[in-house]
Amino acid sequence: MSISIKKMNDVDKEVAAETCKSIAEIITESAKSDGEYIEPYKSRLGDAIVLLVCEISACSQDELRTEYGNMIVNAVFAELLPAFASVSPDFALIFQKLVEPMMKYAVSTELAEDVATVVGFLGNVAKSIDPDAFFLRELASPETNNRRNAAFCAGELCKWESMSKHYLGVLHLLIQILEDPKADSVVRDNAAGAIAKMITAGPSSLLLDQLDQVLPVFLKALPLKEDRAESMAVYKCINDLVNLSSSHTQIRRFLPQFSMVLKQVRLNDETEAVGALIQQILVNI
C-alpha cells in the first residue's frame, strides 16, 4: 500500500489513475471485512488525496482535456474519494481541505462531464459528513473563499435526495448571508445562486411553505453584481417560478418584483443564452 500511495502522484497520469482505481478497490474490499487492512494507511492516504486534488485544480484546460487528464479526474472523484469517505469517520476534517481546490476546479473547468463528476462526489460525500455542522461553520466563516465554496456546495448538494433533511437549515443560513449588509458581493451572488438551485430542485411542499420568507430576500439581492457564473441558475429559477405562477397565487403576487429585477439586468454583461432567457421571461410576465 505504501508504494501505491506514492504512485498516486506519479508524473505518468495513466499510472496515477490506475493506482487510484486500485486503491479504491482495495478500500472497498477491506470495508467488507473489518477494514483493518486500510486503517494504518488512512492518514497518509488522506494527505496524498488532498495533494492530488490540489494538483488537479492547478492543471491547465489543455492538460485536463487529454485522455489521461480525464482518467485521473474520474479515478479520483468518482472512485477513490467516495471509497475513502465511506471508511473514514473523520472524513469531514479532510473534506475541509478538499473543498477549495475542488471548487476551484469545478468553477474553472470547461468540461461539463468533469463538473458532473465533482458534483456527483459532493452528493455522495454528503452521506459521510455532518452537513449541518459543515455549512453552519463554513457559511459563517470570516474567509470569503470559505463562504463562497460553502454556498456553491449548498446549491449543488441540495439537489441530492440524501440532503433533503438538511434543506431548510441550509436555506436559512444562505438567507442570513443575503440579509447581512456587510457580506461580500461575490458571496451574496453565490448565496443567491445556491438559493435559486435549491428552489428549483427542492421538495415542492417545502418550497411553497418557504416562499413568502425566501423570495423577498432573494429578489432584494438581485440582479447579480459580480459572479455571472450564477446567472443561469438564478434566472432559470425565476423562469420556473413565473411558469408556476398561473396555478399559485402565492407566487403570482411576486410577478411585478420579478419584472423589476429582470429589467435591471445589464444584458451586455450576460451570455447570449442568459440574455435570451431574461427577455423570454419578461414576455411571459
Automatic annotation (TrEMBL):
Q: Where in the cell is it found?
A: Cytoplasm
Could you give one GO CC term from the UniProt record? cytoplasm
Which GO BP terms apply? protein import into nucleus
Key words, A-Z: Cytoplasm, Protein transport, Repeat, Transport
Tell me which PANTHER family the record gives: IMPORTIN BETA
Protein name, per record: TOG domain-containing protein
Organism encoding this protein: Papaver somniferum
Upper lineage: Eukaryota, Viridiplantae, Streptophyta, Embryophyta, Tracheophyta
